[in-house]
TrEMBL record:
Residues 487-534 form the Alpha-D-phosphohexomutase C-terminal domain. This is Phosphoglucomutase (Alpha-D-glucose-1,6-bisphosphate-dependent). Keywords: Isomerase, Magnesium, Metal-binding, Phosphoprotein. It is an enzyme of class 5 (isomerase). GO terms for molecular function: magnesium ion binding; phosphoglucomutase activity; phosphopentomutase activity. The keyword Phosphoprotein applies. GO terms for biological process: carbohydrate metabolic process; purine ribonucleoside salvage. Its EC number is 5.4.2.2. InterPro entries: A-D-PHexomutase_a/b/a-I (IPR005844), A-D-PHexomutase_a/b/a-I/II/III (IPR016055), A-D-PHexomutase_a/b/a-II (IPR005845), A-D-PHexomutase_a/b/a-III (IPR005846), A-D-PHexomutase_C (IPR005843), A-D-PHexomutase_C_sf (IPR036900), A-D-PHexomutase_CS (IPR016066), PGM_a-D-Glc-sp (IPR005852). Its cofactor is Mg(2+). Residues 38-177, 208-315, 319-438 form the Alpha-D-phosphohexomutase alpha/beta/alpha domain. Belongs to the phosphohexose mutase family. It comes from Arthrobacter zhangbolii. SUPFAM superfamilies: Phosphoglucomutase, C-terminal domain, Phosphoglucomutase, first 3 domains.
Length: 543
């Protein structure tokens, strides 16, 4: 932990907005530099204009590529586009609008010229597509919880959730071709002309999302219980949504901090002394945690509100894994409109407490690789009632079992904590303690280990037979996985399990390290042993 982690940001920590915005327009990325090419991760293209990774040319090229993709895919409905509160989000949305309008795409932006959470865009796409044949898609301009100097740009196809790698690879390849060609082939008109184009319209994301919440949550129970809720947008896109939710549904809800500041000067520093709007981090959430006793439930969201942080007066900030397990246990016992066959979805680096809860519920567990995109088909069809990942992202079905959003919804999961408390009379922290008394109390952690680019590539291509070890931390190995058991997709790494523990190793996409996720139901000392042996096993097969 850094010495200043959890402390208020100082002037020296703040990004120079003038330099950031100037660089967006002035810096021309070098397509021959891999760090300055278009690259889609699990949540779109991200980077900073200051290092040539997120600039005007990137967005023009990506948007043109999306236009060409949707044409080839026969997508003829409107494209819903929203932005978050990062400084680079508005100029990037403007660039995209210029390209979309020049191509004659029917694009809908926020009717209030405000900020739009990722789940509100997903909700809008699904709502439109439920009754139309001319299917809609969407763009969200956001780098999620990344620092203030970053920008992000992600595409959601008509399924409403994150695009799969088949789409993002195509878009990235085409965008890089356009960059290499000096943007020849990119259609574009001036912003003023674009805003007046017949193909450009507006959509009230806030109204449509807020008014539809009773279809997915028991808001009557929250209102009747009179719970005092504290909602902290962390300066993000949910800032206007929380006040609207309180007013529309008559909830005793206070917006803890309604300020929007593209420098995020009010934030407390994360573990590495960076400003990061990570609502699952106790350091980034330090201000709200300090006020936990003022509310029955307090919650936080990241900049695009696709993540949730749950703070209770009796337990502080909940570990995301703990909350996912608690939410799953509550929802599958309190949603009579859900199919009895609907499965539970989790990423393979999420806690095995979820496995034990799912088995107790008599449900089937679908374990998938990292990335919310893997939950999209099941949430859309209703076959998966809940999908969640260890990084505090999740979504679930409406009360009647139909889809609500196929992207992560931090507002939804935050409100669920209040519903859970209202209905059961216990906080999510208390509910989790009940689970540990039945199933054990696991220790979970993630650490990084150094690795060269060649070693990371080797890790991503492992096969189970490459691992010859038969035991891990004193227990027999029960499985060696390089494909997710839930859908057979490659995990881009390795997972090894025993009766009471597991580890997973995945290469970092941005640093010369690989990540080791590990968990033990036998205590902290056993967890440390698992981590040490995990590193030895992985190093032995990639060196």
């Amino acid at each position: 932990m850094s010495n200043r982690a959890g402390n208020r940001a100082e002037p020296s920590d703040l990004v120079d907005l003038t330099a950031l915005l100037d660089a967006y327009y002035d810096v021309a990325p070098d397509p021959s530099n891999i760090a300055q090419r278009v690259a889609f991760g699990t949540s779109g293209h991200r980077g900073s204009s200051l290092n040539g990774a997120f600039n005007e040319r990137h967005i023009a090229a990506i948007t043109q590529a999306i236009v060409e993709y949707r044409t080839s895919a026969g997508i003829t409905g409107p494209l819903f586009m929203g932005k978050d509160t990062h400084a680079l989000s508005e100029p990037a949305q403007n660039t995209a609008l210029e390209v979309l309008a020049a191509n004659g795409v029917n694009v809908l932006i926020d009717a209030r010229n405000g900020f739009t959470p990722t789940p509100a865009v997903s909700h809008a796409i699904l709502k439109y597509n439920a009754s139309r044949t001319d299917q809609a898609d969407g763009i969200v301009v956001t780098p999620s919880h990344n620092p203030p100097a970053d920008g992000g740009f992600k595409y959601n196809p008509p399924t409403g959730g994150p695009a799969g790698s088949d789409i993002t690879n195509w878009v990235a390849d085409r965008a890089n071709q356009l960059l290499e060609a000096g943007l020849e082939g990119v259609k574009r008109i001036p912003l003023g002309e674009a805003r007046l184009a017949d193909s450009v319209g507006t959509y009230d994301f806030l109204q449509n999302y807020v008014q539809d919440l009773p279809s997915v949550l028991n808001l009557d129970a929250i209102r009747s219980a009179g719970l005092h809720i504290g909602a902290d947008p962390l300066g993000g896109a949910s800032v206007d949504y929380w006040g609207a939710i309180a007013e529309a549904h008559q909830l005793n809800l206070s917006v803890v901090n309604p300020n929007v500041d593209p420098q995020w000067a009010f934030m407390t520093l994360d573990w590495d002394e960076k400003i990061r709007m990570d609502c699952s981090s106790p350091y980034a959430m330090a201000s709200l945690i300090a006020r936990a006793d003022q509310y029955d439930i307090a919650t936080g969201n990241d900049a695009d509100a696709d993540r949730h942080g749950i703070v209770t007066p009796d337990g502080g900030l909940m570990n995301p894994n703990h909350y996912l397990a608690t939410a799953i246990d509550y929802l599958y016992r309190n949603r009579s409109g859900w199919s009895s066959d609907a499965v539970v979805g989790k990423t393979l680096v999420s806690s095995s407490m979820i496995d034990r809860v799912t088995a107790d519920l008599g449900r089937v567990l679908m374990e998938v690789p990292v990335g919310f995109k893997w939950f999209v088909p099941g949430l859309l069809s209703g076959e998966t009632a809940f999908g969640g990942e260890e990084s505090a992202g999740a979504s679930f079905l409406r009360l009647d079992g139909s889809p609500w959003s196929t992207d992560k919804d931090g507002i939804l999961l935050a409100l669920l904590a209040s519903e859970m408390t209202a209905v059961t009379g216990k906080t999510p922290t208390q509910r989790y303690r009940e689970l540990t008394s039945r199933f054990g109390d696991p220790e979970y952690a993630r650490v990084d280990a150094p690795a060269t680019r060649e070693q990371k590539a080797a890790l991503a291509k492992l096969s189970p037979s490459d691992v010859t070890a038969t035991a891990l931390a004193g227990e027999d190995i029960t499985a060696r996985l390089t494909e997710a058991p839930g859908n057979g997709a490659p995990i881009g790494g390795l997972k090894v399990t025993t009766e009471n523990a597991w580890f997973a190793a995945r290469p970092s996409g941005t640093e010369d390290v690989y990540k080791i996720y590990a968990e033990s139901f036998k205590g902290e000392e056993h967890l440390h042993q698992v981590q040490a042996e995990a590193k030895a096993i992985v190093d032995g097969v990639i060196s």
